[in-house]
Amino acid sequence: MTAVDAGMLTTADGRPLKDALARAEGRAKRRAFLLVAPLLIFILVTFVWPILQVLEQSVYNPKFSDNMPGMVSWFASHPVGTEPDEAAYATLVGDLKAAAEAKTVAVVGERVNYALPGTRSLFTAVGRKAKTLEPPFKESLIAVDPKWGDPDLWGVMRQVAKPYTGDFFLAAVDLERDKNGSIVRVNENERVYVNLFLRTFAMSAFITAICLVLAYPVAHLLAVLPLRQSNLLMILVLLPFWTSLLVRTTSWMVLLQEQGVINNILVALGIISDDGRLQMINNRMGTTIAMTHILLPFMILPLYSVMRPIPPSYVRAARSLGATSWTAFRRVYFPQTVPGIGAGTLLVFILSVGYYITPALVGGSSGTLISNLIAFHVNKSNNWSMAAALATILLVAILILYWLYDKLVGIDKLKLG
Prior knowledge:
- A two-stranded antiparallel ribbon has the order 1-2.
- It has helices at 17-59, 69-77, 86-102, 105-115, 120-128, 137-144, 151-160, 167-172, 193-224, 227-238, 245-256, 261-268, 284-307, 312-320, 325-353, 357-362, 370-379, 384-408, and strands at 175-177, 183-185.
- By secondary structure, it is an all-alpha fold.
- It starts with 16 loop residues before the first helix and ends in a 9-residue tail after the last helix.
- The protein has three domains: 1-59, no CATH class; 69-190, no CATH class; 193-413, MetI-like fold (Orthogonal Bundle).
C-alpha cells in the first residue's frame, strides 16, 4: 500500500482501500447468502408460502362469484334492502341455467350453504329443472321451492357474491351478518367455535401445568445423578419418541376403556365394583392422560438442558450461609431453571393446542379440540375457508403468546438445550 496526495490509503493496484474493503465485504456477504439460500428457499416453500395460502383461503372464496356473474352485477347495482323484482329473478335463472350446463350448481349451493345451512339441496334441485323454467321467473322459482322468495336467502346471496369476505372470521367467533349486513351473534344453540377455542386453550394450559409438575423432579433427578445412571434413565425418557404416535394413542385406548387393563386391575383388587368401572375414555380425562404422557418428554428435555450445567456448589453455598433448603431452592436454584421452564411450557402448550390424532381417538365429543374441527372442515364439510379462518385465529393466538412471553420473561432467555 502507498500514500497518495490527500493521504488516502490505497491497495497495491492503486484502488482506494475503503472501496477494496467494501467490495471484499460484499463478496463475503454474497457467498454467505448463497450458502444459506437453499435453506431459505426451503423455508419459503414449505413454511411461509403455505401460511400465506391459508391466510388467503380464510378471506377468499369465489365459488359464487365465479359461477353467478349476473347476480354479482345485480347486487353491485342495487343497494342493500332492495326488494328483488322480476328482473332479479330472471338474472338468477339465467345464472342457474349457465351453472347447470357447466355442472357448477352444487358448487354455488355449497358456498351459500356455508352461510345458510340447508340451501345446498335448494340449488341442486333447481339446477335439475333450470331448463324448464319459464317467465314469470319469480313464480316459477317459488313454485319449485318457496324458499326462493325468502329475504334471508337473498341477503346471504348478496354476502357471498363478493369473493373476498371476512364472514368466515365472523363465523369462527360465533358471529354472522343479518339480511341487512349488520353483525350479530348466532343463535345460542349454534355457538360452537368460541367454546371450543376456550376448551382447547384451557385443556392445553392444564396439560402443560401437569407436564411441568411431573417433569421438574424427573429433570432434576437426571441432572444430579452421575452421568452413567442419568444416561440410562434418559433412554426411558426418550423411549416414547421411538414409538409411533398412533401406537401410543391406541395403547391408551386399550388401557383406559371400561373393559381395559386399568379398570380390570382395579376391579380385581376390589378398589371398585364391576358395575362402577371408571369412564376414562371418550372424554376430557382420556385426552388429558394420553396427551400428558405423549408431551412429557418435551418438558423434561428443556428442563434437563438448563439444570445439568447448574453447579451443585451454588445450593450448598447458600445452605452454608444459613439458608434453608426451601430458601436455597427458591432463591438460588429455581431462578436458574426459568429459561428451561419457559421453553418447555411454550413447546408443550403449542404442541397441545394443535394436537389432532390423540383427541380424535380418545377424546370423544367432550375431549376434542379445535384442531379436530379444522380437520372436519377440510375432510368432510369441504369448507376450506372456514378451516383456514380457524387456523389463522389459532396462529394469531400463538403469536400473541410469544409476544407476552417476550414482554414478561424475554425471548432471549428461552433455552431448548
